Every structure is written in structure tokens, then in C-alpha cells.
């Protein structure tokens, strides 16, 4: 489960504690088909899979985003050589935890290798969590941590006040923040990052957010040139009748022209909107439900505390979001959220 990966990185969760195992029991009334999607043909209303062709009357695309390490020259080699690690997969988060444990001195570079990416707060949370994991090695200055992003501020869609507040939190902890740094190559032999502005930065350990791309299956639907699926901001419908998309596979344009962040909290609320939309499309008498843009995310600070960003992202002319200071209460809210999601998918025995 994505929201738990940072806690795996910190060493607070074991892999078997954060796995989601959807079963017929957790999906009452739903036929569960396990297969790989090869191609989506919206013209003939068919999904071609490794387990046969599925026809449909209504289609909801929820295929997420895919990591593409090869998009940055040298990044795949750095990951394979152990000079770099990532925390967007379960194995990656476990391996990076071990690498941080083994680092006695030097510099950790936390790099956003491309935008958009899942969970805008995640790279900065990772910096906080690794600093806490290092303990005295970080506090004494034996190990330094710096963050690099192509964006002008962290979480830019949330607005400059939120971004500036997060930069202040990083600086208060002694973590460096470097804006507008678009990586062009990673040299694992020299342990050096190369950026589009002609500068270079050394590292001893690279913690990277790999570039994200649409899945091949989502691109096959042909709903946009980029592969990210444009949706109506309120209904999540696509340009094709009877087809919706939710979550990280989509591009939902906000009133200020920027895309909605890729975050699970939005996918969860979008699911209810689309469920009503599908039912109405199929002729059922149910009320219309619209996506409101309300959402909140937590920014873990490594000490069993978390800040919380909350607000409405569909507000005009720009999102209205507030970043609340770190507290143990917000951390416990995220723990409760994790528990509820795992219970929903792994142990539920009755209809939701």
C-alpha cells in the first residue's frame, strides 16, 4: 500500500504488514479477474487481457502510473550499482532503509527526477524520515541531506504559502532545499548529478523519485497524446461515452490550469463519484455525485509526528490549502487511515 512505503523506508513497517490482498471476500458481489491488460479498445468496447477479452457497457480506468528509471541517463545503472535507491516500491523502500543504515558519513541527495509524480509530499517526507533514522549521524553533521526538485517549491499546486512553509520545516531540521533543478544525467561512478542549468552536485547516496509515465495499457486507449487520461473535473468522465478514469492515470485540470496532484485521497473520493456515474449510465435511479476537490495529506517529520495539508483544490482561481504544523495527532490520523484501508481490503467479510 503506497501510503505505508515511507514507513517501510523508516523501518516502522515490515513488508507483510502493508500488503493489500484483494479477494472475493473483500469484493462482495464483484467478479474478480486477475490478468494483465494488453490493450483497451474503446471503439469496440473491449479490454484485451492475458485472460481473454472482456466486453463492457461501462469502463472505469484506474491503472495508476508507472516508474520509468530509463528516462534519465545513468539512473538505471545507479540503481543497479547500489549508488541509488528508490522508495516507490516495496522492495525499493526496504533496500533504501538498509543503505541509509549503512551510511556513516557523506551526503544523501533526495532527487525528484521528473514531474508529475505520485504524492507530492513524499520526497520531503523521505528526507525527514531518513534524517530521523540516521539519528546522531545526521545531528552531528556526519551525514548531510539535500533535496532537489524541478519545481520552484515543494507541493507547488498547493500554493506558495504551503511550499514556503515546507521549505522552512526542512531548513529548521537542517535539510537543504534546491529548487528548479532538472536532472539530465546520473553518473554512478563519480556519484554526481548533472542538471539542465549546467551545474553538478555530488552525492554519496541518491534517494530518487523516478520519472512517472502512464502505463502502456492506459496509453493504448488512445484518449490523449501523452497517455495521461483527461477527465471532467467534476464527473471524471472522459471524451468517450461510457468511459471514466480515476486516480493517478488521469490528468484533471484545475481552475488555475495546473493538474490535480496524484494522491490516493483523491482517487478514493473519485471512486464514489464514478460509481454513481456508472449506475446512472446503466439506467439506475441514483443521485448524481460530483468530485469536490476536497483533500488532505500528511507530511511525516520522522518523529511520530506529521504536518497536515488540507483544503479544496478545485477552488477558483487557485487551490485553497492550509499546511498545519506537525503534531502527534496528525501522525495518528495517518495510522488510523492505514489501518482502515488494510482492514477494508484484507479482512472485511461484509458489504461496505
UniProtKB/TrEMBL annotation:
InterPro entries: FAD/NAD-bd_sf (IPR036188), FAD/NAD-binding_dom (IPR023753), SQRD (IPR052541). Keywords: Oxidoreductase. One of its GO terms (molecular function) is sulfide dehydrogenase activity. Its EC number is 1.8.2.3. The keyword Signal does not apply. The keyword Ribosomal protein does not apply. Residues 29-271 form the FAD/NAD(P)-binding domain. It is an enzyme of class 1 (oxidoreductase). It comes from the Bacteria. This is Sulfide dehydrogenase [flavocytochrome c] flavoprotein chain. It comes from Mycobacterium innocens. The gene is fccB_2.
